[in-house]
Design brief:
Blueprint (H helix, E strand, L loop, with lengths): L4 H27 L7 H4 L4 H12 L10 H9 L13 E6 L2 E6 L4 E6 L9 H12 L10 E7 L13 E2 L3 E3 L8 E8 H15 L4 H17 L9 H9 L1 H35 L4 E3 L11 E7 L8 E8 L4 E8 L10 H10 L8 E3 L7 E5 L7 H10 L3 H18 L1 H12 L3
Parallel strand pairs: 3-4, 4-7
Antiparallel strand pairs: 1-2, 2-3, 5-6, 6-7, 8-9, 9-10, 10-11, 11-13, 12-13
Helix pairs in contact: 4-6, 6-7, 9-11, 9-12
């Protein structure tokens, strides 16, 4: 590679020029009205806000003043006519018994579970079905009057749902024995049904400019979510890559190492010493620093001095999603848990799912079976680029000091919980 350094420099200069031209063309298009501004992006739309907007459209009593028009079209697009749901008398609820969207006509019940960024957990669907059943005075054939719509970005097959024994195209079975209960079911997606539905209702309200604009904005968001948004292609950049393919391969092969080196420099030489100083004399100790070498894994581990051997819980800083962010949390040191020990996941969640930690949830970790993680806003959305920015602005030490204070604050707040949890874990050793 060193022998061809001039070729690399030439390629990168040409790439920068081509990209600048591309940005200029994009800017000209934006000035002509072809822009990326979207009210839902401005509002930081996430799963819960998708659910809110969908519920608002589906609600016959909603502020769109279209009665049950949108709900009728939704039932039609989702091919639910056999369910015989009365849209004219329907009521729509958000977070009813934790159900994302619940729709009922007083006799029939539709459960919409919206899964954008997470998978099914804690036997949600089974619990939601039972919650509806428990509320009914008339129990006769109640399960036949419930329909589950499982909404995901794409059409891929749903192979497993917690608490559900069998998933078929049109129904769910609650268990495998002769008492098995059947509930109507359909998997729908943003990619297909939601976009088809939005397209159809846009035609219905084309003369209502303000409402049409809002729905068009949402349509654009869904298209971006499902990789169907308009892309401003740069043919010059594509040509440069094709003409310099071997150089691009070398860049790709060295990209991850360069990214890891930036992360390791910040953690090892700036953050680690500051955390070590702040916990000196406390009940905690730092594990020896090991350079970060994987896409997803623990970078810093902090253990309680009484619990350093065998099966225990420790505080971690780790990377996630291919250098995209830093996150902190608690991780269980045992790689594989048996069925009885899976309760430990619930215990970890109980520690963190209160107060300021309500957004933390259990996920599979790199070194432990379960970790509870919370992203750190100042070190998310392309971690490496942020670190480069901090380094170029001579802010490594300043940011490391802030991050050390932030992590140690949470570490000391959780001291009692960590001790109590490790006592429980010790019984499993």
């Amino acid at each position: 590679m060193s022998e061809n350094i001039k070729d690399y420099k030439k390629f990168l200069e040409e790439f920068k020029i081509a990209f600048a031209k591309h940005e200029k063309r994009c800017e000209e298009r934006r000035r002509r009205g072809i822009h990326d501004l979207n009210i839902f992006d401005v509002l930081e739309t996430k799963e819960v806000k998708h659910s809110r907007f969908l519920a608002a459209l589906l609600d016959p009593d909603g502020l769109h003043y279209q009665n049950d028009l949108f709900l009728r079209e939704f039932v039609d697009i989702c091919e639910l006519k056999d369910f015989d749901f009365d849209t004219s008398s329907a009521k729509v609820y958000r977070e009813y018994n934790n159900i994302d969207i619940y729709i009922t006509d007083g006799d029939k019940h539709i459960i919409i579970e919206n899964k954008l960024w997470t998978s099914d957990h804690d036997e949600q669907i089974a619990r939601y079905i039972q919650a509806i059943v428990d509320e009914q005075d008339e129990q006769d054939e109640i399960y036949e009057r419930i329909l589950v719509l499982y909404l995901t970005p794409f059409d891929g097959e749903i192979k497993e749902l917690g608490g559900i024994a069998q998933i078929n195209e049109n129904y769910l079975l609650t268990d495998e024995n002769y008492n098995s209960i059947k509930v109507s079911y359909k998997h729908i997606s943003y990619q297909k049904e939601i976009l088809e539905w939005i397209s159809k209702i846009k035609l219905e309200i084309a003369n209502l400019i303000d409402l049409s604009v809002i729905i068009s904005q949402y349509e654009k968001l869904v298209k971006n979510l499902t990789n169907q948004g308009e892309k401003m292609e740069n043919k010059e950049i594509f040509s440069l890559i094709q003409e310099n393919h071997s150089i691009c391969i070398d860049i790709v092969e060295n990209f991850e190492k360069a990214s890891r080196d930036i992360i390791n420099d910040f953690i090892k030489n700036h953050l680690y010493p500051k955390i070590e100083a702040k916990i000196q004399g406390s009940d905690f100790l730092l594990e020896e620093f090991n350079e970060y070498y994987e896409d997803y894994g623990c970078i810093i581990k902090i253990k309680h001095k009484k619990y350093t051997q065998g099966h225990f819980l420790y505080f971690v800083l780790q990377t996630h999603s291919h250098f995209s962010m830093l996150e902190w949390g608690l991780i269980n040191s045992k790689n594989k848990l048996n069925r009885s020990e899976s309760k430990l996941t619930e215990l970890i969640e109980n520690i963190l799912n209160s107060g300021k930690y309500e957004k933390i949830k259990a996920i599979k970790g790199a070194e432990g079976e379960w970790a509870c993680a919370k992203k750190i806003d100042d070190f998310s959305n392309n971690l490496v680029l942020k670190l480069i920015e901090y380094k170029n602005n001579n802010e490594f030490d300043k940011k490391a000091e802030w991050l050390a204070d932030y992590l140690c604050e949470h570490l000391f707040e959780l001291k009692d919980e960590i001790i109590e949890f490790n006592k429980k874990l010790k019984k499993h050793n």
